[in-house]
Amino acid sequence: MKTIILTILLLLLAACGSGGESDEPLTLRLMTHDSFDISQETIDEFTAQTGHQVEIFKAGDAGAVVNKAVLAKDDPLADVLFGVDSTFLSRALDNDIFLPYESPQLDNIADSLQLDSQHRALPVDFGDVCLNYDKAWFAESELDPPANLDDLADPAYAGLTVVENPATSSPGLAFLLATVSTFGEDGYLDYWQQLRDNDVQIADGWESAYYGSFTAASDGDRPIVVSYASSPPAEVYFAEEPLEEAPTAVVVGDGSCFRQIEFVGILKGSEHETQARQLVDFLLDKTFQEDIPLHMFVFPANETAVLPDVFAQFSQVPAHPATLPPQDISTNRETWVEAWTGVMLR
Questions:
Q1: Distance, CA of 234 to CA of 217 (rounded, Å)
Q2: Which part of the chain is CATH 3.40.190.10?
Q3: 144, 265 Cβ separation under 8 angstroms
Q4: How many CB atoms lie under 10 A from the CB of residue 186?
Q5: Is the Cβ–Cβ distance between 144 and 222 less than 8 Å?
Q6: Fold assignment, 128-258+318-344
Q7: pLDDT in tens, 121-166
Q8: Which of these CATH numbers, 3.40.190.10, 3.40.630.30, 2.160.10.10, 3.90.245.10, describes 25-126+260-314?
Q9: What would the 3-class secondary structure string for the chain be?
Q10: Binning pLDDT at 50, 70 and 90, where does residue 61 land?
């Protein structure tokens, strides 16, 4: 009898000690957007450190990823979600899809990027949507490059700018938000009417604007385009012949760029919370962070990460980018886009 009791006690102790999660190697599912790109060597490093594999599940653009995660919140599609950005953050938080987790790596991330005080969504990277201009075009003209948003409405810049439709383009939406932030809800539509009167061109998406109309990248006739602060280093990095300087530059005047922050979070209902925390820590640590710039052409959130030389030399980071509270964006996004459409396309 004593042997039976002792055996039962040992089994109970073993069950309690397991904590409900196995320490055996497993496969974690990382849900993300279609633009996610990182080297296999980096993913392999996580496996080398922890023994766990990572399955990448691409689920559409950032908005689609959030929508799918919300619809599946009671039976999550993955363990960790990467790529909800600041324009969709409130939708994710309002629907309570993430578990809180205060990663120790947050000590290396600027407070300005940490938008969720409960640490359900942790910042991984950031990028600024800005006006880019063709340096050669302006060097050959008698016109200075624009210094801020106001310059685009000056008759001297008539017919020089192409922007993207905010209803169909992520950078287009970000640029619209920059104008709301800079000119206010009472003034942004007046600003857009000035741009329309100044013959601004509207493209459906970034590729058609950049490679179809922008003079620095196409046979187009527009030397100013809405693009990214990381576009100049990308131009140098992907050039067929080595370049000593970028052919494009960025307008970084106060409020002229809109900062997009991408976040990661552990999905509620994950059966592997402990291991998911390890993956979040890895995404915020230097190995992953230093691999971000030359794969996704955004900036790492971790301030200890070292930028690649081409980023350090040719990128410009605005000192005072435009921002808006995520809740304001969530509440007003559709209204602002619809009002923009009424002014610009009707």
A1: 12
A2: 25-126+260-314, 128-258+318-344
A3: no
A4: 7
A5: no
A6: D-Maltodextrin-Binding Protein; domain 2 (3.40.190)
A7: 999 999 999 999 999 999 999 899 999 999 999 999 999 999 999 9
A8: 3.40.190.10
A9: CHHHHHHHHHHHHHHHHCCCCCCCCCEEEEEECCCCCCCHHHHHHHHHHHCCEEEEEECCCHHHHHHHHHHCCCCCCCCEEEEEECCCHHHHHHCCCEECCCCHHHHHECHHHCCCCCCCCEEEEEEEEEEEEEHHHHHHCCCCCCCCCHHHHCHHHCCCEEEECCCCCHHHHHHHHHHHHHHCCCCHHHHHHHHHHCCCEEECCHHHHHCCCECCCCCCCECEEEEECCHHHHHHHCCCCCCCCCCEEECCCCCCCEEEEEEEEEECCCCCHHHHHHHHHHHHCHHHHCCCHHHHCCEECECCCCCCHHHHHHCCCCCCCECCCHHHHHHHHHHHHHHHHHHHCC
A10: confident
Which two three-digit tokens encode residue 193? 């009417």
